[in-house]
Design goal:
Layout (H helix, E strand, L loop, with lengths): L2 H11 L6 H14 L3 H16 L4 H47 L1 H18 L1
Helix pairs in contact: 4-5
């Protein structure tokens, strides 16, 4: 064999373990891509505990029904509170309008006449 061929054969036979830079790169890649043994064991243990504490479908349906009932009650309370707030604001606005008319009756009459005239012209 010629020396050139000998080098090629030697280079072809060199694996990653013979090149320190390649060994370092592969080691970093291996540790970055694979979980540690403790993490893998912890994951398996968690999966087993989840599987052993699984809830039956009937229990899950009952829990969902209870949640729907709770949400329905909550929505009804919010709606009732909104109605009370709306009524309070409407009565406050009505009272404020009455007070303003009492303070300035001529301005109220002028505004009413103007609005009546506009309404009459559009009909």
């Amino acid at each position: 064999m010629t020396p050139d061929k000998q080098e090629q054969v030697t280079d072809e036979r060199l694996g990653p373990a013979d090149n320190p830079q390649e060994v370092h790169r592969l080691a970093e890649m291996w540790t970055a891509d694979t979980p540690l043994v403790d993490e893998a064991l912890r994951s398996v243990a968690e999966q087993q505990s989840i599987a052993s504490s699984a809830v039956s479908p009937s229990e899950e349906i009952a829990a969902l029904r209870a949640e729907v009932a709770r949400l329905t009650k909550s929505a009804a309370e919010v709606a009732a509170a909104s109605v009370r707030i709306g009524r309070t604001e409407a009565s406050d606005a009505l009272e404020a309008t009455r007070n303003r008319i009492r303070k300035e009756p001529m301005a109220a009459v002028a505004i009413a006449a103007f609005l009546g005239c506009i309404w009459g012209l559009t009909r």
